[in-house]
């Protein structure tokens, strides 16, 4: 039983059949570091979800923010280019490598006993950008299938048939999103997977092709140097009414203090329940969100 004032069950459930969330790390870290940094979120979420931590396909130097604590957690990885010294890669190869890395960890989790539906994406920083980009790519394929009168849509860059992400948790996610399907996503408001998104010259208006309508949670640190780009993703690239915003007094990191963690976790439970995912509530916090879709 939970202790007084604490709704977290004392026993962690077998995660075999729990719905699964794929977790995508930021640039210059790796899956192990993201998992360690997310310990306060895990303490709650492990009662409702099986969390699966993916490694990016490309090696890189460690992010300066993590060297002191996680400098021994080699090798360090990235999903996308963000510095000029990162080797050039064509868009098709980059998309293929990202898809392969994600598909591999998902299939590995199947072999390790995971049986629950894949329902959500949770990413930090570059991983949040990628999470939003994967949702947008799925949305484009789904809308294409509707236009063509098909009941199912193509498998996309991950290559797993029937995959249907219900929502995304974007921890410090920056605009612009990355174009993971140039054949369908022709908007100039998206950056090519081959390019560096830092310094991206934003278009005057984000057209409908680049507007994400699938549900997303946005977690913004008010002391984060990239806050203006986080707000741009939230305000310009996402459909009003499809989002929950959680703001907190922190910098570019994952929340660990209980008051902020409980708000983030409550938002995840709320959005999951709205999308038909059964959860075990470990917090009392709920937002005033009403999904307009």
Report the end-to-end length measured between terminal Cα atoms.
37 Å
Main sheet attributes: strand count, strand direction, barrel closure: 6 strands, parallel
What is the SS-derived class?
alpha/beta
Within CATH, the superfamily carries the name Alpha/Beta hydrolase fold, catalytic domain
Count of distinct strands: 10
Helix count, DSSP H or I runs of 4 or more residues: 7
Architecture overview:
The protein is of the alpha/beta class and 293 residues long. It has one domain: Rossmann fold (3-Layer(aba) Sandwich), CATH 3.40.50.1820. It has helices spanning 31-37, 39-45, 67-70, 91-111, 126-147, 227-236, 258-274, and strands spanning 20-24, 50-54, 58-59, 77-78, 118-124, 167-171, 178-179, 191-192, 216-221, 243-248. The strands form 3 sheets. The chain has a 6-stranded parallel β-sheet with strand order 2-1-5-6-9-10, sandwiched between helices. A two-stranded antiparallel sheet has the order 3-4. Helix 6 links the parallel strand 9 and strand 10. Helix 2 (39-45) crosses helix 7. GO terms for molecular function: hydrolase activity. Keywords: Hydrolase. It holds the Pfam family FSH1. One of its GO terms (cellular component) is nucleus.
What is the topological layout?
Elements: E1 20-24, H1 31-37, H2 39-45, E2 50-54, E3 58-59, H3 67-70, E4 77-78, H4 91-111, E5 118-124, H5 126-147, E6 167-171, E7 178-179, E8 191-192, E9 216-221, H6 227-236, E10 243-248, H7 258-274
Parallel strand pairs: 1-2, 1-5, 5-6, 6-9, 7-8, 9-10
Antiparallel strand pairs: 3-4
Helix pairs in contact: 2-7
């Amino acid at each position: 039983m939970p202790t007084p004032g604490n709704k977290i069950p004392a026993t962690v459930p077998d995660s075999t059949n729990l719905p699964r969330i794929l977790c995508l790390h930021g640039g210059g870290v790796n899956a192990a570091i993201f998992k360690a940094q997310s310990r306060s979120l895990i303490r709650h979420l492990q009662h409702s979800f099986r969390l699966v931590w993916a490694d990016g396909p490309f090696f890189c130097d460690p992010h300066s923010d993590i060297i002191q604590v996680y400098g021994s957690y080699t090798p360090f990885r990235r999903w996308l280019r963000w510095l000029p010294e990162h080797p050039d890669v064509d868009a098709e190869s980059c998309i293929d490598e990202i898809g392969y890395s994600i598909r591999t960890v998902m299939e590995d989790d199947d072999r390790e006993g995971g049986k629950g539906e894949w329902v959500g994406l949770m990413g930090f920083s570059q991983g949040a950008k990628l999470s939003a980009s994967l949702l947008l790519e799925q949305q484009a394929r789904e809308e294409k299938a509707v236009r063509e009168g098909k009941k199912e849509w193509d498998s996309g860059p991950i290559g797993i048939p029937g995959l249907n992400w219900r929502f995304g948790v974007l921890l410090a996610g920056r605009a612009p999103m990355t174009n993971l399907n140039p054949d369908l996503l022709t908007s100039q408001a998206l950056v090519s997977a081959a390019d560096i998104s830092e310094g991206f010259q934003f278009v005057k208006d984000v057209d409908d092709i680049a507007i994400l309508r699938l549900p997303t949670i946005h977690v913004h640190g008010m002391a984060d140097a990239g806050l203006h780009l986080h707000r741009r993703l939230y305000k310009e690239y996402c459909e009003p009414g499809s989002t929950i915003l959680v703001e907190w007094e922190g910098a570019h990191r994952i929340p660990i203090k209980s008051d902020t963690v409980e708000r983030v976790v409550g938002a995840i439970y709320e959005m999951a329940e709205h999308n038909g995912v059964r959860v075990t509530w470990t917090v009392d916090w709920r937002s005033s969100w009403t999904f307009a879709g």
